[in-house]
Amino acid sequence: TRPREASEPRFHHDWERRVFAIGVASPIPIPGGSRHNVEQMPPADYLNTSYYEKWLQSRLKGFIDAGVITAEEFEARVAAFRDNPNAQVPSREAPEQVEATMTRLLSWNSPRRAVDIAPKFTVGDAVQVRNIHPPNHTRLPRYVRGKPGTVTRYYGAYDLQDTMPEGVETPVEPMYAVRFDGRVLWGDAADANSVVYLDMWESYLQSV
């Protein structure tokens, strides 16, 4: 594990700034977005890459999947700069794209859906997380599956950010904040009186 820095900078290297900019300017329009692609990384690669390296791998996969570039084109460019590390990187000014990106970032719209859905649970209800194992992207952490918790807040209805089978429309579901006792999740390794709060869609939960 990496030790925590007292005054950690936002970026440790200049290339991280560029990767951040690429990520902001090119969102991935699929459920889970960049997280989905990060989850597709081989386990060894995931554990041995930094935060922004994961961003880079995610966007690269997104560009290839979208047909912006091919894997062969990418490998060729990598080889070219590996053989000529001092070669000048092409530069292009795109003020209209910058302005459009900044407008999108500053004009935030709530993802909450204005639909008439009656929530199944209320604040204070005891619930249990379903022990399910979706085959694709899911926002349900493995470490809480099958564990009991307590509903502490109801947020309203939101698009489920799990990957749906092809042809299935993304459902809108009630979302809750659920409190878990640390001892229930981690056993004796948990700190005394520790708790974890997770935001969870209704389909993740069942009544106790």
UniProtKB/TrEMBL annotation:
<keyword id="KW-0456">Lyase</keyword>
<comment type="similarity">
    <text>Belongs to the nitrile hydratase subunit beta family.</text>
</comment>
<comment type="function">
    <text>NHase catalyzes the hydration of various nitrile compounds to the corresponding amides.</text>
</comment>
<dbReference type="GO" id="GO:0046914">
    <property type="term" value="F:transition metal ion binding"/>
</dbReference>
<dbReference type="InterPro" id="IPR042262">
    <property type="entry name" value="CN_hydtase_beta_C"/>
</dbReference>
<dbReference type="InterPro" id="IPR003168">
    <property type="entry name" value="Nitrile_hydratase_bsu"/>
</dbReference>
<feature type="domain" description="Nitrile hydratase beta subunit-like N-terminal">
    <location>
        <begin position="5"/>
        <end position="94"/>
    </location>
</feature>
<protein>
    <recommendedName>
        <fullName>nitrile hydratase</fullName>
        <ecNumber>4.2.1.84</ecNumber>
    </recommendedName>
</protein>
<dbReference type="InterPro" id="IPR008990">
    <property type="entry name" value="Elect_transpt_acc-like_dom_sf"/>
</dbReference>
<dbReference type="InterPro" id="IPR024690">
    <property type="entry name" value="CN_hydtase_beta_dom_C"/>
</dbReference>
<dbReference type="Pfam" id="PF02211">
    <property type="entry name" value="NHase_beta_C"/>
</dbReference>
<dbReference type="InterPro" id="IPR049054">
    <property type="entry name" value="CN_hydtase_beta-like_N"/>
</dbReference>
<dbReference type="GO" id="GO:0018822">
    <property type="term" value="F:nitrile hydratase activity"/>
</dbReference>
<feature type="domain" description="Nitrile hydratase beta subunit">
    <location>
        <begin position="110"/>
        <end position="206"/>
    </location>
</feature>
<dbReference type="Pfam" id="PF21006">
    <property type="entry name" value="NHase_beta_N"/>
</dbReference>
